[in-house]
């Protein structure tokens, strides 16, 4: 669903409104809700909502969804502005959550690819899993709160955002290769991880055990044996953790060949590699 916003030209603002707006901007961190405004100004929610709506119409605020706004830079000629930091909006809208998948891989230098969509792992169960806010696309994946581990805090201005650490990032894209842009991209990220200072395969196995998804070890074992055969200890650990049933290397591909050792269906060209 693409969210449309009314474009309002910037207009003047009176002394009282300026003082109120200044107080709100001083005491908020990137996004402004009706509850924020009510608390800061000492007014009820109804009056706070009316103020924010009025400032939106005057061009000092930009509405990103009902009851939530972002400030408009003073030098902007319109309220139709892009999100300055989509991570702040993600944290506000989808918490409890963390930035994961390809977005976390970009942050941790596990890929040189540039992904315009922001990948968010959330405990919420949103109806719309691909919301578009101010022309920024978010991809939401639901995860249980018990599975929210392997995260690190990242400061964005005055706000602390949770991002998956490099090891957890690799785990997530092994659970669902789509979170990494497909298995080819996942294999590239895994290779970069193995060459990085963040490499910790013992921790990766621990994370995998904790998450309890058998497909992780099938995909990881297969990829390591094929492209990093020197990692014999981890390959053996993956083999010892194989669960019953066959998984697919990448569920979005035509997986026609079964690698019986790893109980893994792979595309024809991956078997020959």
Radius of gyration: 23 Å
Series of secondary-structure elements, N-terminal to C-terminal: HEHHEEHEHEEEEEHHHHHEEEH
Distance between the termini: 40 Å
Kindly report the spatial arrangement of strands forming the biggest sheet. Answer: 4-5-7-6
Helix count, DSSP H or I runs of 4 or more residues? 11
Shape: elongated
Helix/strand/pairing class, anyone?
Answer: alpha+beta
Strand content is 15-25%
Summarize the structure in words.
This protein is α+β, with helices and mostly antiparallel strands and 273 residues long. The protein has three domains: 15-71, Winged helix-like DNA-binding domain superfamily/Winged helix DNA-binding domain (Arc Repressor Mutant, subunit A), CATH 1.10.10; 84-211, no CATH class; 213-273, no CATH class. Helix content is 41%, strand content 18%. It is built from eleven helices and twelve strands. It has helices spanning 15-27, 34-41, 45-58, 86-94, 101-107, 166-175, 183-194, 201-211, 214-227, 232-240, 268-272, and strands spanning 32-33, 61-65, 68-71, 97-99, 118-122, 132-133, 136-142, 151-156, 159-164, 247-248, 257-259, 264-266. Helix 6 runs antiparallel to helix 7 and helix 9 (214-227) packs antiparallel against helix 10. The longest helix is centred in the first third of the chain and has 14 residues, at 45-58. The radius of gyration is 23 Å and the shape is elongated.
């Amino acid at each position: 669903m693409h969210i449309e916003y009314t474009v309002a030209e910037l207009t003047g603002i009176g002394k009282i409104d300026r003082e109120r707006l200044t107080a709100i901007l001083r005491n908020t961190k990137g996004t402004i809700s009706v509850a924020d405004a009510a608390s800061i100004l000492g007014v009820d929610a109804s009056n706070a909502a009316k103020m924010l709506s009025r400032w939106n119409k005057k061009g000092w605020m930009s509405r990103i969804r009902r009851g939530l706004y972002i400030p408009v830079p003073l030098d902007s000629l319109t309220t139709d502005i892009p999100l300055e930091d989509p991570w702040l909006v993600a944290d506000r809208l989808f918490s409890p959550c963390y930035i994961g998948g390809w977005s976390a891989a970009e942050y941790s230098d596990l890929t040189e690819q540039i992904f315009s969509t922001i990948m968010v792992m959330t405990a919420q169960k949103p109806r719309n899993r691909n919301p578009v806010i101010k022309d920024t696309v978010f991809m939401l994946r639901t995860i249980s709160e018990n599975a929210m581990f392997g995260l690190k805090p990242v400061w964005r201005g005055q706000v602390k955002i949770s991002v998956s650490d490099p090891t957890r990032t690799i785990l997530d894209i092994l659970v669902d290769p789509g979170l990494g842009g497909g298995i080819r991209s996942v294999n590239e990220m895994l290779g970069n991880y193995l060459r990085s200072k963040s490499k910790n395969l013992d921790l990766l196995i621990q994370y995998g055990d904790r998450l309890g998804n058998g497909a992780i070890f099938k995909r990881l074992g297969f990829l390591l044996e094929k492209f990093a055969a020197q990692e014999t200890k981890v390959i053996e650990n993956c083999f010892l953790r194989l669960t019953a049933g066959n998984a697919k290397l990448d569920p979005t591909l035509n997986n026609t060949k079964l690698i019986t050792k790893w109980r893994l269906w792979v595309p024809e060209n991956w078997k020959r590699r």
